[in-house]
Amino acid sequence: MDRDTWNDLAVFAAIVEAGSFTKAGVALGVTASALSHRMRLMEARMGLRLLNRTTRSVAPTEAGDRLLASLRPAIAEVTDALVALNADRAKPAGRVRVTAHRSAAFGLVLPRLRGLAEVYPEITVELVVDDGLVDIVKGGFDAGIRRLPSLEQDMVSVRLDDGVRIIMVASPAYLDAAGVPMSPTDLERHRCLNYRLPTAGSIYRWTFERDGQTTTMDVPGGFVTNDIDMLCEGAMAGLGVACVIETQAAPWLASGALISVLDDWRPQLPSNYLYYAGHRNLPPALRVFIDAMKTAAPG
How far apart are CA 206 and CA 220, in angstroms? Predict the structure, then answer.
């Protein structure tokens, strides 16, 4: 059924409910003559007379009554659906599907979810952890969290943090055996744990910053992983020096299981941004999720 026929059926129902072309025209914002002409065209297409007309009123024919009886349940269903949508705007509910890289998922999203759940218990957050770049529209996501260089084009973005430090760590046993590197070039004589970038597929090149100068280099090593958590685990196992996010290694540094090295050369990672498609007509659940992510996590 084409769009014009759907529209004509809605107009037909409105005319019968109003009892006249004039009253229906006022409700629909069109002239009575335009409605009358439209109904004549509809009757001609269907080969049936649907309305009996007098100078004062209109009423459905027997065929029109049968048509209206079939239309009323559908109209009621559409009306109920619109009422439900209005209710959704008043009380956010439903699913918000988000993709985030691992450190953002654990460090930014999870700490803020408790407050969201307490205020909006009818919202379900589906968090997909993926360190690769993701097309959120193609992937069916409402929002994504990535660092600034990784943001997709044509997206609205909200900064969530000021960035984090990268540190180099190793186990006490490894450093006792291999010595403590004092400069990035010393790593050429060490075993290092390398990270394979999930999207590019290449090995991450270690970056060092000192006195405003940035140095990037490939480091030797006999271990490669695509899991950032495995880097800390490998370092604690004595496999070598790992390059990890400072907050990720914090518990192991506090316990003494890991020791940081090359502290004067720590680089800063870019800020994390939450991004989503468009400003207008955001789903209510997504809107309050964004607000929750902009709120500082409890300490």
Answer: 11
Q: Could you tell me which of 264, 268, 269 has the C-alpha nearest to residue 181?
A: 264
- In angstroms, how far apart are the furthest CA atoms of the chain? 104
Structure tokens at 268: 């800063």
In angstroms, the CA 194 to CA 292 distance is 35
- What is the four-CA torsion angle of 40, 46, 49, 55, rounded to 10 degrees? -20
Provide the percentage of residues in the chain whose pLDDT is more than 90.
47
Q: What is the pTM of this model?
A: 0.65
Q: Which of 141-155, 189-203, 219-233 has the lowest mean pLDDT?
A: 141-155
Phi, psi at residue 140, to the nearest 5°? 75, 30
Question: What is the rounded CA–CA span in Å between residue 218 and residue 227?
Answer: 18
Displacement of CA 289 from its chain's centroid (Å): 9
Q: Torsions phi, psi of 219, nearest 5?
A: -120, 150
